## 1
Amino acid sequence: MSEAVPGDRFLVSPGAPLEGTVHVGGAKNSVLKLMAACMLAEGRHVISGVPHIADVEIMAEVLASLGLSCRRVHDGDPEVARSGAEPGDLVIDTPGRLSTHTPYELAERLRASVVVLGPLLARAAEASVPLPGGDDFGSRPIDLHLHGLSLLGAEFATVHGNIEGHVSGHPARLVGSRIVLEYPSHTATDNLLMAAVLAKGTTVIENAAREPEVADLAAFLSQMGARITGAGTSHLVVEGVEELQPAPRAHRVIPDRVVAATFLSAVGLAGGEIVIEDARPEHMDMLLRKMTAMGVETSHTPEGLRAVSNGPLHSVDVATLPYPGVATDYKPLVVTMLSVADGVGIVSENLFSGRFRYVDELRRMGADIGTEGHHAVVRGVQRLQGAPVRAPDIRAGAALVLAGLVAEGETVVSEAGHVHRGYENFAGKLRSLGADVRVV
Ligand code: EPU
């Protein structure tokens, strides 16, 4: 279970430098897609390393609305002997026939649930999913998903706020095609990949997203019998197959690079020496380069990543870009570090128009940040001041908690539920490193 309770707040006070080892957990932006991929084959699927976060629970409800059932493996579960699953793993049972409608009440809680569209069209030749609205990042259209799926033969209409998709023909089946993405959208690539694996013939996706989570999805699909080459590159080739089967063994989701980055920022801000267990430095090259420039030394160890920070932080300029660039999800963390660094840093957001909303909250804590369009100019101050602030989204909420580690007095971060969506036991993990953080 996640620790989410409506009205939750984080209470944060500054303390000693951080010390100890912290475990990262599976990547939210991978596991949500792996769960959707289970729709593609009838039978029992097992996923390991699934974080206990609220978004996983909502995705499980989305899948339940489509006829699947999800449960965690418990001690003494027969699944342990059958598939080598471990307690805590997620077991997903997929029926022979899927329901095809996602209710609005679920979809509005989880934008990522749009990734059921590709699997539904591939497996059931029809889908009805709510058209996503805007959110705190600004407008988040899905035109690239729909355009790509149309090239595979799906037809769409918008009816009463839902996107109704269907595939014609006897038998109704998507047909492989060449898709050039105007922009390497992460979830559009996921959706197209999951649609293409059961399409007739070959699909080529050009300018595909290169995120490690897309490669993880491709690895999972390949274990299910899909034929994919180029995973992790911008040129994906998929030879469609007639049918997929559940992967023969439990698939372990890759570690969450944004959670790892969050602990790197924590040690950058509070100082100290920590080991981030399971972190994969090769998934975070650009960020690590920026961290080094800011004064956080990192080294690869057998357990993961060791991070040390002793002196003042230094300012750098950062521009967010699609992977392997500096991810937009890291930006609130970097802006928070820059707000107490020596000098001036310029941060440019190139992905989401509205992703500077948390800046007002940092200003309430005494940060000196000016914004102009998609740029922020951050002038480091000596010290932040504790204040009541509001978490606007998952990553910005985590960044505000970290700001509290270096703010005079107490910081209260309300709407903690946003953070619980993507972080497993965030306060507990920070406390295990010596930080003074509680959820009330
Ligand atoms: N875009 C379009 N049309 C589309 C799709 C995207 O114009 O059809 C635009 C978006 O509006 C945005 C840009 O393309 O300006 C990037 O969007 P992308 O589709 O790559 O983002 P996403 O797939 O919706 C995922 C993650 C985000 C992460 C971004 C960028 C999931 C569930 N979400 O979103 O993660 O910020 O990629 O890497 O995978 C988070 O974890 O908190 C989070 C928001």
## 2
Amino acid sequence: MTSPRKTYIIANWKMNFTPGEASLYLNRLQKRIPAGRNPQVVLAAPTVALQTLSLQIDRRQCKLAAQNFYWRDYGAFTGETSISQIRSFVDYALVGHSERRYIFNESQEDIAQKVAAAIRNGVTPVLCIGETALERKDGETAAAIYNQLTSGLHEVSKEDISKVIIAYEPVWAISSNKNAKPAKPADIEKAQMIIRQDLAHLYGKDIAEAVPILYGGSVNADTAAGYLEIEGIDGLLIGGASLIADTFCAIVETAKRIKNER
Ligand code: PGA
């Protein structure tokens, strides 16, 4: 079935690259990837590199995302950066990534406030959700998804849900996990259906159909095609494999080919 939704290929560089290294990477990427918005290529760069990259980037080729920010716009919050301070650099922002939830103890309330702050500032939040290995073992995948989705979106109105992207990232499949194992396409397709059902329950069926759902967790150049072919999956959020520009470009090319074939 042809999906009217756009495909997104998002690199999550995490805490890697100096501004200079990020700049070299972008230069290399822009020589290789064609202009065009399908797939939409996005680089979630470290905050410290966003300004440099924003001056260099050709937004017809790719866009930038924040990896993190504080949800208040201004004020006495030593050491924090708000989305209103960086919104001129980025079009997207990751919210609720499992590394933020579990390493930095970000609460469901923080996540909901960040989703709202991104929307308020004209930035598209990429809300990351996914069950832990334990939740999966206990048969609680659907409950974990529902819980993270409803709490993450609780400030988002029916009018604004079209400004949100969901990334399904089962924690046990993310490469930074000690015992990470790649998710099977059947598991991802099932999770995608649960997410769409939950969205339909919250916002109605038509709106649920329009929300892009991405997959993330140990995706590499060899496995990208298999994940992109899953019904209902609209792109990828790539960590480790995005650190090598050539690998990331190869994944972008794969996405373009699959999109054209659909
Ligand atoms: P990974 O990371 O591709 O290295 O598993 C994905 C993510 O954390 O977004």
